[in-house]
Design brief:
39% helix, alpha/beta
Length: 260
């Protein structure tokens, strides 16, 4: 649940893009996975089960794909994130996807979970096209999050004096649709793909107070606050929210097949 990038040039914001590895273990614990329906849709649309995971981070998407029987290679620009993923059995190459060389390898699917907005959309799509075999699938996705109103408001109120956030700390799936649209336009411009297709998957997860606070601490911008400031923010949120509550997610995706 990162702070939603507001600029169409978010891929140029490298300090933010590469800030998540500062506490990679916490990121790995706190960040949610993705709905089973998304994983099933990716597998159903791929000609096989060899997958390239772009911006793999600590391996959250990759582990779900591996559990479904896929062979996964990760690519990530942050060696700290890559090290956590490797300790959990994922092979990772450290690079930005725009400059990464497939070196003759071909994949059935290229995926990116919560990361493609940090990628230059045309350059990233061009690399994906080179890495995919004909008929292979490029699938890019983001988790939109809508906590209960009192949780969203308390979180936004506590953060607002330190970082820019909207009135409520809530980014539903439609807030991420512009990122998916931008990614789709990058595919069209790069060439080599059929027409991109939008997907949406609603789901929910129950949180305890501590789980929510830990996830908030990994959000873009929040994770760059000084430790004392962050502790104060989280304490303020913690005093204002329930012990447990449901959070509604909507995973927004865009996917396209590699042309023959």
């Amino acid at each position: 649940m990162p702070t939603l990038p507001s600029s169409e040039h978010s891929h140029e914001q490298r300090a933010v893009a590469e800030s998540f590895g500062a506490d990679a273990e916490r990121y790995n614990r706190a960040r949610p996975g993705y709905p089973a329906a998304l994983i099933e849709r990716i597998l159903a649309g791929s000609p096989g089960r060899t997958v390239l995971d772009v911006g793999c981070g600590t391996g959250i998407v990759a582990r779900q794909l591996q559990a479904a029987g896929c062979s996964v290679l990760g690519v990530d620009p942050d060696p700290r994130m890559a090290e956590v993923a490797r300790r959990q059995g994922l092979e990772v190459e450290v690079a930005r996807i725009e400059a990464w060389d497939p070196a003759g390898r071909a994949f059935d699917a290229v995926v990116a979970g919560q990361t493609w907005h940090w990628v230059e959309p045309v350059g990233g799509a061009a690399t994906a096209a080179r890495a995919l075999r004909p008929g292979g699938l490029l699938a890019l996705f983001w988790n939109g999050v809508e906590p209960p109103p009192e949780v969203a408001e308390a979180t936004g109120d506590a953060l607002r004096e330190h970082i820019p956030v909207p009135g409520r700390f809530s980014f539903g799936g439609e807030a991420y649709r512009p990122l998916a649209d931008r990614a789709a336009e990058g595919m069209r411009t790069a060439g080599g793909f059929g027409e991109p297709e939008p997907w949406t998957f609603p789901w929910r997860r129950d949180y305890t107070r501590d789980e929510w606070l830990e996830q908030v601490s990994t959000s873009g911008g929040v994770n760059r606050l000084p430790a004392e400031t962050l502790a104060g923010v989280l304490a303020k949120v913690g005093r204002a929210i329930p012990d447990a509550f449901p959070v509604v997610y909507s995973t927004v995706a865009v996917a396209a097949r590699r042309s023959s």
